Amino acid sequence: MRGGFRVHVVSDVHGNSEGLRRAGDGADALVCLGDLVLFLDYHDHSRGIFPELFGEANADRLVELRTARRFEEARDLARSLWQGIDRNAAIESAVRKQYAELFAAFPTPTYATYGNVDIPHLWSEYAAAGTTVLDGERVEIGGRVFGFVGGGLRTPMRTPYEIDDEEYAAKIEALGEVDVLCSHIPPDVPELCYDTVARRFERGSAALLDAIRATRPAYALFGHVHQPLARRMRIGATECVNVGHFASSGTPWVLEW
């Protein structure tokens, strides 16, 4: 019989409800670090909200422009496609459909925070009694203190839950000392922020890095960068781990004590 405590951790679910239903198997708790929504699958351009609305050919073009960092042209394309459509209503309707399926897949107990593509104000409508949503808050899981910081920092991509650096730093400061620091984005370390397939740096947080050095949690767990140059590294006393791109792997990262 297994002793101790076991937590499974996932991030960047991006619509993988089938995998999410199994993610808590064998664990005492599931931790989710956000990005439940699938707006556009960069590997399969037929999947996600954007191609459902505008077709795969337009999704191909949008990915091409974004990958080339031609963000203004990408925005021009999107603006032309959205003409005559209530963008907010269409996106919210599609996100609600995804959230209904994804939140129903969460096991009990689940502890979750938002990713940069999530829409926070909708979560309270779908989170059942067994799902605890945390952002700038702490919780005890199996005798260890976990701190959660949701969302991302502002970028040219303008995803739904991007906030100013100062607001993000304030959430980290509110946590104080924790055993496990959970965030969607990584600390601002080049090896943890560089995506080897997209061939670009994603935004990491300098405030997260400062907190790791100052408070020395045992673990700092995050996702966001789908194919990082380094999946884990030690910063002082802290093991920093990218828990993986759950949308493609379907496999949670395991923490036991």
From TrEMBL:
GO molecular function: hydrolase activity
Domain Calcineurin-like phosphoesterase residues, every copy: 5-228
GO biological process: cell wall modification
Pfam family, one: Metallophos
CDD domains in the record: MPP_superfamily (cd00838)
InterPro entries per the UniProt record, alphabetical: Calcineurin-like_PHP, Metallo-depent_PP-like, UPF0046_metallophosphoest
Record's protein name: Metallophosphoesterase
Organism field: Streptomyces eurocidicus (Streptoverticillium eurocidicus)
